[in-house]
Amino acid sequence: MTDNRFFDEMLTGAGDARVPYSEYAKWFSGEDPKVLLKKSNEAETFFRRIGITFNVYGQKEAQERLIPFDIVPRIIAAREWRLLEKGIEQRVRALNAFLADIYHRQEIIKSGRLPEHIISRNDAFLPQMVGMTPPGGVYTHIVGTDLVRTGENEFYVLEDNARTPSGVSYMLENRETMLQMFPELFTKMKVRPVSGYPAELRRSLSECAPPNFDRAKPRVAVLTPGIHNSAYFEHSFLADQMGAELVEAGDLRVVDGKVQMRTTMGYKPIDVIYRRVDDDFLDPLSFNPDSMLGVPGIMDVYRAGNITIANAPGTGIADDKALYSYMPDIVEFYTGEKAILKNVPTWRCSEPDSLQYVLDNLNELVVKEVHGSGGYGMLVGPAASKKELAEFGAKLRAKPDNYVAQPTLALSTVPIMTKKGLAPRHVDLRPYVLVAPGRVHITPGGLTRVALKEGSLVVNSSQGGGTKDTWVLGD
């Protein structure tokens, strides 16, 4: 049964299957629900067996969790995907141009399109990157653009993840699981593959290797904080799938002006590091002196042009939720075009009038920390108690610069499999984008995150959300 307040991606208001789902709905109607529930349990066993878990910080018990997986795919029509691809590529190119500008001439600030304080007061802006151009001119090698949908061809960008977007291993394993469980569906439907992502990632990173290295065979490494990191499974998975080295700080050192990896044959130079370590911990000589997760002197090697770091240090400013509110201007400034994908209307609480509006309408808004992620530190006004609203109001008054607010969107729904049959749940989508000099590659699909709790709008795995396989149909 559909809820007419929200756009149901599978069913029309009359209960008929929409065109992208027509073949799937026909197949589903002929299946035994008990068999499908059994397969759903089998999927969980599969994920647990291969170790696809994540860590939940701040909880003493059950720290390592399985992200729930739902067996009903999210299906996107070819024409819808073409619109998304065009808008995502435009946005990613604008972000890369923006990063190049703010670390060099800062023309966008001189033009008055962006206030200077958005940069100068931002902890994610790295003075160490001023005047620095990464190899190939690429700052954002891997981007995850979070999208939500509210209607037919109504897509909004929720946020840009230009620092270290995670979750791609779930996209790949979700597809592998669906292929194993429902091979007949992939013969009936033209579902575009996602399995080429690791090879594309390796190719993109290799194309960004420093020019003084052998680009035909660059040595690529994934730098992980270690096994206790929440995304360690993904780090090891991607290194294995790419045929890259998985390294921790202790495996690396600077030798003869290059970052080198310890091997049984001595130290060997690394050409490209796909780092999953935050800026602050990357180099104890340049950033946090207490860091044990980074490589002393790596920034000197980087500035000398002897290594590529992906994503480039300082890209985190593009994740900033206060900056997000200026993205339509940023896209237009660097591309000369109006943004294809819309932003969610955003109130910057640092501005007195906006702060007052947010305080007056707190029970209707979603409030987020400007540097927040994972669903932490946010308030969903319509679902909050009077006590929570009062406490969050006090936080806003104490530190308004730390927050932005947005309207509560009527997020689209996709059915999930429950014991009682199909039930609608809210979703978002994170497509994965790879950038190389002169080239942008968008994997046809991405990670669909689903709010498994009825009525919930929070899809983050750390807040009880799950994932789905995302099917982009071919023409």
Automatic annotation (TrEMBL):
Pfam families: CP_ATPgrasp_2. Gene3D superfamilies: 3.30.1490.270, 3.40.50.11290. This is Circularly permuted ATP-grasp type 2 domain-containing protein. It comes from the Bacteria. Residues 73-451 form the Circularly permuted ATP-grasp type domain.
